[in-house]
Design brief:
Layout lengths: L15 H19 L11 H4 L3 H23 L6 H25 L12 H5 L19 H22 L6 H24 L8 H10 L6 H16 L1 H9 L1 H18 L6 H22 L5 H4 L3 H30 L7 H41 L2 H7 L2
Amino acid sequence: MPQPITADISDKHKLHGLDHLRALAIIYVFCFHYQFFGHPAWEAGRVSNFGWTGVDLFFVLSGFLIAGQLFNTVSKGKAISVNEFFIKRFFRIIPPYFFVLILYIAFPLAHEWGHLSPLWRYFTFTLNFGLDLRKYGTFSHAWSLCVEEQFYFLLPLIFLLLNYFKAGKRSVYLVAALFIAGFIVRYLNWKYLVAPYLNTDDFNARFNEFVYYPTYNRLDGLLVGVSIAGLFTFYPRVKEWVNRRSYIILGVGIVMLVIAWLACPQQSTYNTVIIGFPLVSLAFGLILAAFVSPANIFYQLKSKVTAQIATWSYSIYLIHKLIIHTTQSLLETAGMDKSSNLAMLVCVVCVVAAALAMRYLIEKPVLKLRNIILGKMKVADRPATEKQLTNL
């Protein structure tokens, strides 16, 4: 889910517009998932139902940020360091993820519903394939993190292959082919594996298993993000054109998102499969393009609130279901209505507190360790004479 849920950029190159979008994404995901627990009646409306798109926004952000880093390296004529790339991703993603997984293993009463999937699926990041919610509902939201991890694993390797074969601008055909292939596969899965069960109790579980979770059906957002990063890096005139028209592009993106909201009131519909996924991804792509344009107010607008929420977003995503379930169980034992507004407020506070604890006890220390390791790698890669000068 989770970036993006997991993408990070240095303060030196901070894009404030991305903080606003990341904050929006995690708030929307939280509101969507909260409907599956005790919740106030107002929380389960059309707006919250459309919260499934928060993950798509994370995918667009991930594609843009991660591909943008690699494109930037290539544009400078430098070689992509696969070791550095994977070290950055490992320390950013794995420690918090494993910590939450350990909590789920250690405290069975914290399970939201059903059981944990077999542990090897979490360790191999293959949870999103064949995930049956009728049996394995606990920590099921890790499916989106699996999609991102698979993306992170393949993207630098694809870059190296394209560079080896000197594909250049022809790489755009690969993006287009993947986009079209994903659309076709999604449609076929809907028609043959989901639609025949439309009026049965198995429908929702089959929709998630065969359409919503698999990576090959969810490439739209990632590909849109990658495409924008490529255009902005290698076609400066496109970036300038977008910058001059950022408000028009933002408006078009919002209109497209509203159309998707009207056409796809639920995630598990034919309209969602055919037009929802690509339309939502394109809409968020246009909104992102506007938000990272210097002429746009959202590029310049600094907000401590959205900046903090964006910083906590990965931890919030990982732990929010566990905390909501545990908090509501305790509140119910104490005699409070878990569907009340007060219970929701308490849950929000507890989720933020847990995310803060993870941020300062786990994320920040391991990121410091990551920086030390990367610093030593850069020193080791310097020419011998440069190392000698450094040691003077």
